[in-house]
């Protein structure tokens, strides 16, 4: 029986041909891998210096080596994440605005392609390139396995999160690209949106906290959901091993992990993420913190935070909204030229 | 990533006020009734009534800002009219854009080509975008490249083509789904004389294939040779429409005939129609004058254009 022909979105197909034919894709991939390889080398050497035997891991304790392996993994993951946050807006902000500037949008709009196909084709192309970047990173990430301290599931989870956040940023940038006429403006706004998600959400949370304190609250207690759209928090929650890593090398995820654990400080507070009452006698939700369900029963053996999936839900909704807005913007016939 | 149903369905529209009769093959390919497009206080197109017969080459003439491109954008289902009714082969571009796009090829006044593709890839992309069955792509692209005389450039990168070649490639793009109606906005702009002649010949070939062609151009002499009918627009309004002869009659303006005699003497006469022109020639010969040249002065459309328009832009 003949295989049914798979029809690739024409925009996606064209984007892939054009993108992979040029030198830019190769240059970006090379620079990306070079940066990651450098980070890997530096973190590896830093890890070596923190063990008992700086020259040979074999002479160090298993825990020490594992903590170094984990540190290297987290450094790589965060750098990968940061590079994706930096590269994806640059790659996608010209998706539609670039078509306008090149004057290729009108010929596209008078075809039978639906606006959503155009938007999804553009996002798909960005995602395909992102997937290529991540696949190219695999050999570097696999080095962590040689050292230890990271499980396969953690690596897959971390990489999947990078891909997911890349998709979210691609959706946002493409929508911005559809809304504005100039690539330059679209690029600025896309980076602005990423900046807001990564740093702006912290600023908002800090602002709410400061407002709380100024109103005489015992402690600044901004709602946790303010950080749900923050990609670094999501990544930290996924990559969180639940340990404090006292002896491990410091990783850039640590501050975010710490923030997740001590999110609501001590005292009595409503955990808005889980919907459970959390009584905190000290910082962190370790053995000192007890969670109660809505009926006041203590929750025994509470699981790891559900922050990451709620964050993914929020980010998914943002992405879908962006696709819808971008598609509406490209819809013709329109009242005015688009 | 596959497509699924979405949008393109007409949304909030200023419903057309005028009605278009039921479409039949005898009906014009394109008809507009009271077509108006307004941006605030500015009328881009005002109460435009056109009837473009099937198989005709229809020239839309007017100075910059006359409303030609806006009219074309409405015909091509890119813009919604503010008022009035439009029919392209019996379909309303505002209400049935996909039906119109299946049957209409639009070449905008800008080139807009993807420089990173080869010529055949470029046409394949638009064939896919127009849902042309993939099995027929090679034959379609071969035929189109031959038609626009780009067969030798099949594997060339689009960015290596000259402007004239890109223009022809754009025309091939507009033809990739074999539309019955072609709307060409300034297809000759920026072309050198040779490329213009090639384009003119190409349009003649398309006409012989039975396509209805609507074309705008600043090169009026070319339209004179190509168009079966013309419409002259200015400031969004239609000033005159019909064959050049009928417009001339509407304008009540005679033809200027220049006569050059042996010995270098030149004379000018004014006639109203073909009969008077024939009678004039007979009279000159009867008088025993040795006529070296006898012909209409200037290019018909240019004269008409200058007479009809005021040169003002909105």
Describe the protein's architecture and organization.
The complex is a heterodimer of chains A (338) and B (314). Chain A starts with 9 loop residues before the first helix and ends in an 8-residue tail after the last helix. In chain A, helix 7 packs parallel to helix 11. Chain A has helices at 10-21, 23-50, 62-92, 97-101, 105-109, 115-147, 152-179, 183-214, 231-239, 254-261, 307-330; strands at residues 267-270, 277-280, 290-292, 298-299. Chain A contains eleven helices and four strands. Helix content of chain B is 32%, strand content 25%. Chain B has helices spanning 68-75, 97-103, 119-129, 137-147, 163-174, 193-208, 220-226, 244-251, 274-286, 300-308, and strands at 30-39, 42-52, 57-61, 83-88, 104-107, 181-185, 212-216, 229-234, 237-242, 255-261, 266-271, 291-296. Chain B has a six-stranded mixed beta sheet, with helices on both faces. A three-stranded antiparallel beta sheet of chain B has the order 2-1-4, covered by helices on one side. Classes of the chains: A mainly alpha (338), B alpha/beta (314).
The biggest beta sheet of chain A reads: 4 strands, antiparallel
Count of extended strands of chain A: 4
Q: Which parts of chain A are unreliable, with pLDDT below 50 for 5 consecutive residues or more?
A: 264-296, 298-303
Approximately how much beta-strand content do the residues of chain A carry?
Answer: under 5%
Please state the structural category of chain B. alpha/beta
Kindly state the number of beta strands of chain B. 12
Could you tell me the mean pLDDT of chain A? 80
Q: For the report, how would you describe the main beta sheet of chain B?
A: 6 strands, mixed
Proportion in helices of chain B: 25-40%
Distance between the termini of chain B: 46 Å
Largest interface: A-B, 41 and 44 residues
Number of alpha- plus pi-helical segments of chain B: 10
| Strand arrangement in the largest pleated sheet of chain B | 5-6-7-3-8-9
Distance between the termini of chain A: 46 Å
Oligomer: heterodimer
């Amino acid at each position: 029986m003949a295989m049914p022909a798979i029809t690739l979105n024409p925009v996606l197909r064209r984007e892939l041909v054009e993108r992979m034919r040029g030198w830019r894709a190769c240059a970006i991939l090379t620079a990306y891998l070079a940066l990651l390889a450098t980070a890997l080398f530096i973190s590896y050497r830093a890890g070596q210096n923190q063990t008992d035997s700086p020259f040979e891991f074999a002479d160090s304790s298993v825990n020490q080596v594992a903590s170094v392996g984990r540190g290297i993994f987290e450094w790589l993951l965060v750098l990968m994440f940061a590079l994706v946050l930096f590269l994806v807006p640059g790659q996608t902000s010209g998706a539609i605005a670039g078509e306008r500037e090149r004057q290729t949008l009108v010929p596209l709009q008078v075809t039978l392609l639906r606006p959503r196909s155009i938007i999804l084709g553009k996002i798909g192309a960005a995602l395909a390139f992102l997937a290529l970047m991540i696949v190219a990173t695999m050999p570097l990430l696999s080095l962590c396995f040689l050292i230890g301290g990271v499980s396969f599931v953690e690596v897959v989870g971390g990489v999947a999160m990078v891909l997911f956040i890349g998709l979210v940023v691609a959706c946002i940038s493409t929508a911005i690209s559809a809304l504005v006429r100039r690539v330059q403006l679209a690029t600025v706004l896309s980076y602005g949106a990423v900046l807001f998600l990564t740093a702006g959400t912290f600023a908002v949370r800090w602002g709410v906290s400061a407002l709380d304190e100024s109103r005489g609250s015992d402690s600044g207690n901004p709602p946790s959901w303010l950080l749900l759209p923050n990609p670094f928090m999501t990544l930290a929650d996924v990559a969180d091993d639940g340990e404090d890593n006292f002896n491990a090398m410091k990783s850039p995820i640590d501050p975010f992990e710490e923030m997740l654990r001590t999110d609501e400080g001590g005292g009595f507070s409503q955990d808005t993420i889980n919907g459970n009452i959390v009584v905190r006698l000290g910082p962190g939700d370790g053995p000192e913190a007890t969670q109660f369900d809505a009926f006041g029963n203590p929750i025994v053996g509470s699981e790891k935070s559900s922050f990451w999936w709620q964050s993914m839900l929020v980010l998914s909704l943002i992405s879908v909204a962006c696709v819808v807005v971008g598609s509406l913007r490209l819809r013709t016939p329109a009242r005015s030229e688009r | 990533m596959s497509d699924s149903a979405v949008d393109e369905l007409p949304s909030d529209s200023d419903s057309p006020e005028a009605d278009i009769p039921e479409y039949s093959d005898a009906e014009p390919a394109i008809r507009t009734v009271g077509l108006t497009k307004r941006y605030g206080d500015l009328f881009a197109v005002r109460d435009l009534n056109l009837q473009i017969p099937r198989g005709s080459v229809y020239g839309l003439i007017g100075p910059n800002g006359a409303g030609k491109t806006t009219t074309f954008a409405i015909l091509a289902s890119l813009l919604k009219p503010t008022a009035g009714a439009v029919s392209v082969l019996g379909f309303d571009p505002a209400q049935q854009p996909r039906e119109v796009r299946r049957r209409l090829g639009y070449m905008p006044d800008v080139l807009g080509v993807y420089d990173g593709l080869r010529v055949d890839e470029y046409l394949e992309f638009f064939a896919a975008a127009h849902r042309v069955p993939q099995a027929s792509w090679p034959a379609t692209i071969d035929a189109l490249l031959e038609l626009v005389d780009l067969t030798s450039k099949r594997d060339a990168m689009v960015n290596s083509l000259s402007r004239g070649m890109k223009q022809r490639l754009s025309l091939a793009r507009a033809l990739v789904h074999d539309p019955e109606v072609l709307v060409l906005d300034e297809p000759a702009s920026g072309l050198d004389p040779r490329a213009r002649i090639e384009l003119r010949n190409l349009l003649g070939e398309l006409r012989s294939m039975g396509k209805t062609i609507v074309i705008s151009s600043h090169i009026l002499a070319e339209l004179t040779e190509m168009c079966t009918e013309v419409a002259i627009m200015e400031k969004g309004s239609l000033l005159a429409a019909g064959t050049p002869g009928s417009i001339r009659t509407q304008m009540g303006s005679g033809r200027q005939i220049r006569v050059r005699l042996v010995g270098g003497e030149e004379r000018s006469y004014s006639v109203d129609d073909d009969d008077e022109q024939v009678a004039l020639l007979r009279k000159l010969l009867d008088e025993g004058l040795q006529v070296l040249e006898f012909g209409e002065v200037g290019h018909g459309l240019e004269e008409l254009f200058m007479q009809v328009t005021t040169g003002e832009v909105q």
